[in-house]
Amino acid sequence: MIEKSEIQQRRVLVVGQGYVGLPLAIRAAEVGYHVVGLDVDTERVKRLVAGQSYIEDVPDARLGPVLASGAYRPSLDTADCADFDLAIVTVPTPLRDGAPDLSHVEDAAWMLGRHLKPGATVILESTTYPGTTEELFGPILERASGLAAGHDFCLGYSPERIDPGNREWRLENTPKVVSGIDAASASTIREFYGSLVDTIVLVGTCKEAELAKLLENTFRHVNIALSNELAMFAHDLGIDIWAAIDAAATKPFGFMRFTPGPGVGGHCLPIDPSYLSWRVQRTLGRSFRFVELANDVNSHMPDYVVRRLVDGLNERKKALNGSRILLLGLAYKANTGDARETPASRIAELLIGMGAEVQAVDPHVVDDAHPRAAGLKNLRRVDVTPDCLAAADAVVLLADHDAFDYALIAAHGPYILDCRRRLVGAHVDSL
Length: 431
Description:
Layout: H1 4-9, E1 11-15, H2 21-30, E2 34-38, H3 42-49, H4 60-69, E3 72-75, E4 86-89, E5 95-96, E6 99-100, H5 103-115, E7 121-124, H6 132-145, E8 154-157, E9 176-180, H7 183-194, E10 200-202, H8 206-237, H9 241-248, H10 272-284, H11 289-299, H12 301-315, E11 324-328, H13 343-353, E12 357-361, E13 380-381, H14 386-391, E14 394-397, H15 406-412, E15 416-418, E16 428-430
Parallel strand pairs: 1-2, 1-4, 2-3, 4-7, 7-8, 9-10, 11-12, 11-14, 12-13, 14-15, 15-16
Antiparallel strand pairs: 5-6, 8-9
Helix pairs in contact: 5-6, 8-10, 8-11, 10-11, 12-13
């Protein structure tokens, strides 16, 4: 266990201040570490310096005290990385042309290597394929610093498990998987995270920790794809898929509830399983068929939503071209402003391309917060009012935020396509 006095003497650097890095940095500052939060986004750092958070999991009320005390310092300047004791890398790992893009991880490693000192610890949290820490990240650190991993500095991997907007499972009470390249690294990393979270799960190797993260997300991705495909078949067969899921979920063993939706978003599901598929293909020359099939099903759900909307309008003797469509919820999941890879972007793009007049409502997503949700930028934003609902030819519920007044929506929406099963009525179609 790290003593309080020892915590207060340690400098922690968190590279990347997004959905993973900012909650981690703030938590470390709250327990007493001196934390620098490094990010390349000028506007993001300006907001943090001003005490304005852009992450729901870190309200301004948490950010303000650690800024005022000096325990947390956001920065754009890599010179502020000097003399760190622990560095945690939480940078994005997107896909580019179907292959992992680890350029941000590589850049972070080169930068950290120039400031790395003997006795320091470096931890990678960014989701990636098994082998990244020891085969890519560590060697760059060694080349940039002239030091040897496991001899001169500690190195390990700990996958993030942040679920944006989850009020029950937060960083502190979600079990944290940790690993190190050797026993000393594992011990140091376990101690550090043990000072931040309630439960530590130590695994034997970095590759096991890297695979565990991909396994978690692939499990969800595949099962959501199963629910999505079943929803399409059940609709064509005239069966209520939601009633079938409710019935199956009464089984106390051997079944876990997954529900259909308009598509998957965030980083975890649209991207992370493809890292594993890519690694299997590149290393073993074999296809990871479950991931590839799940990718195909989930990525085409926005197209299915639009097709269902066209069918629903046709039944009401209306054409999509020229119709006013109101989208409710632009985030990829309920009660969060996270619009990374959101299916709403593709749905809006398809609808506009087919001649619809599209309006949108989302109390959590702001216009300029998510550059990777480019399809949302030009949408006209409106408020949910009786007049706005009544003026729409169709209302599409994409993200079921608790902030929505569902009774109002059901009372005034003339035709509703409900992708989340929150509404009932003769004028409501469920996905």
